[in-house]
Structures are given as C-alpha cells and as structure tokens.
C-alpha cells in the first residue's frame, strides 16, 4: 500500500478512515439523495430482458475493455512513480491525490460532454485515454511529467458518465439491472486491466509497459464502440422509409 495515513498511524488507520468516510456517505445520502419510489410494473423478467439486447452487451464491453487501461496503469502506479519517474516515496500520496483530482475533472467534463452528444462523448473519451496511456509509456521519466501523466490518466474517468447514460438508454425498462451491470463491468475492467498489466511487468517489459497495455485495451474498446455505432446506424437505415 502506498505511504500515507497507513505509514504514519499504522495500517489499521487506513481502514478506519475509509470506514469513517463510508459512514459519512451513508448519512449524506440519507439526507440529500431524493427518495425514489419503486416502479410497480418492474419485475425480474422485465429486468432480465435487457440481456437479450445486443447494444447492452456492446456497452458493457466498452466499459469492461475500454476502461481496463486505467486500472492496468493505476494498479502499478507507485513503482512506476518511484522507479521510473524518480518520485520520492513520501510524495506518492500527493500524486495519488492528483490522480483523484483528475478523476473528478474527468467526471465533470465527461458528464457535460454526454449531455452535449452522448455517443461522440464516449468516443472522444476513449481516444483521450488512448493518448494518455501512450504518453505515460513514453514520457514517464521525470517527477513533473509524472504529475501530468497521473492527472491525464485520472481524467480518463470522463468515459464513465457517458457509458452509464448509454447503458440506461439501451436497457429500456430494465433500468435497475442496467445500473447494476454498469458497476459489474467496471469491476471486470479493474480485474482485467490489473491482470494484463501484471503479465506485462512479469514478462520484463517494465513498469511503464502498463501504458501500452492500457493503450491496446483502449483500441479494443474503440473497436467495440464503433461496432455499436455501426449497429445503431444500420437499424436507423433499415427503419427509415425508402
């Protein structure tokens, strides 16, 4: 675990802080999130109907594959910072905060882009991620470049709001299952990205080789995205009067 509260106060402190934040989140959610009423027409069969839609699977694929690059890089970011960029171990928590700031900015920008045009927003974010991972591989050589790279990679979170909105759109009446599947796909991206990044490092390609792994996963995600766009256009062309 990277240095920070765990090193200063003991490893149990990190879990205590996370627990305290969780309790605070529960309290804030209880008071500030609008209370929604259950849909009386919802049923397990209606929800499971989403699994028969090809666009649901394609959107989940974009998330599970296209978002995996972030975790390929982030899972091994500490040794990349210290061994390649020359960042001191005590500075790592600060750079992890920079990563978090990038995620916040990405979430804001990605949401605005998705409100503008949903599918272009997803495509733009996937290309952005591809560029960020390539830069990480080639430029992770100094502490200052490390700051920029970590911020950009965190900014790749911009793809998530668009994917979430797209999944809710294509799921139709299965909104509850769609929301759950979105998180499942993101967790799969976490596992897949970390695993592939670990294979690259274990093969001797270096700590920054995770950037190339992330870039390849982004390319695969773009391919799935383009398949989704093509399917949408094909259906629209078939439905339009000749």
Please give a structural write-up.
The radius of gyration is 20 Å and the shape is globular. It has 12 helices and no strands. Helices cover 79% and strands 0% of the residues. By secondary structure, it is mainly alpha-helical. Helix 7 (92-116) packs across helix 10. The protein has helices spanning 5-9, 11-32, 44-48, 54-66, 68-74, 77-84, 92-116, 118-139, 143-155, 159-170, 175-202, 209-239. The model has no long low-confidence stretch (mean pLDDT 90). It has 2 domains: 1-36; 42-239, Growth Hormone, Chain: A. It starts with a helix and ends with a helix.
Short description:
This protein is mostly helical and about 240 residues long. The chain has helices at about 5-10, 10-30, 45-50, 55-65, 70-75, 75-85, 90-115, 120-140, 145-155, 160-170, 175-200, 210-240.
List the defining traits of the structure above.
Growth Hormone, Chain: A; single chain; 242 residues
How would you name the CATH homologous superfamily of the largest domain? Answer: MFS general substrate transporter like domains
**The biggest beta sheet, please?**
none
- What is the count of β-strands? 0
- Total count of helical runs of at least 4 residues: 12
Taking the alpha carbons of the first and last residues, their distance comes to 61 Å
Low-pLDDT residue intervals, each spanning 5 or more residues:
none
Give the integer mean of the pLDDT values. Answer: 90
Instruction: Give the number of domains.
Output: 2
């Amino acid at each position: 675990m990277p240095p920070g509260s765990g090193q200063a106060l003991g490893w149990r402190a990190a879990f205590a802080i996370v627990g305290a934040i969780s309790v605070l989140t529960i309290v804030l959610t209880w008071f500030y999130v609008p209370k929604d009423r259950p849909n009386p027409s919802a049923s397990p069969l209606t929800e499971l109907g989403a699994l028969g839609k090809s666009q649901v699977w394609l959107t989940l694929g974009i998330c599970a594959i296209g978002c995996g690059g972030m975790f390929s890089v982030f899972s091994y970011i500490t040794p990349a910072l210290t061994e390649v960029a020359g960042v001191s171990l005590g500075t790592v928590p600060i750079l992890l905060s920079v990563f978090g700031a990038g995620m916040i900015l990405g979430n804001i920008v990605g949401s605005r882009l998705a409100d503008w045009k949903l599918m272009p927003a997803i495509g733009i974010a996937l290309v952005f991620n591809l560029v960020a991972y390539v830069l990480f591989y080639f430029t992770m050589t100094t502490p200052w470049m490390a700051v920029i790279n970590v911020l950009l990679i965190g900014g790749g979170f911009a793809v998530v709001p668009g994917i979430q909105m797209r999944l809710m759109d294509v799921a139709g009446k299965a909104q509850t299952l769609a929301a759950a599947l979105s998180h499942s796909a993101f967790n799969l991206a976490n596992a897949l990205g970390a695993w592939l990044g670990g294979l690259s490092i274990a093969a001797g390609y270096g700590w920054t080789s995770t950037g190339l792994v992330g870039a390849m996963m982004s390319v695969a995600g773009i391919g799935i995205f383009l398949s989704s766009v093509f399917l949408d256009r094909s259906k629209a062309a078939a439905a339009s009067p000749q």
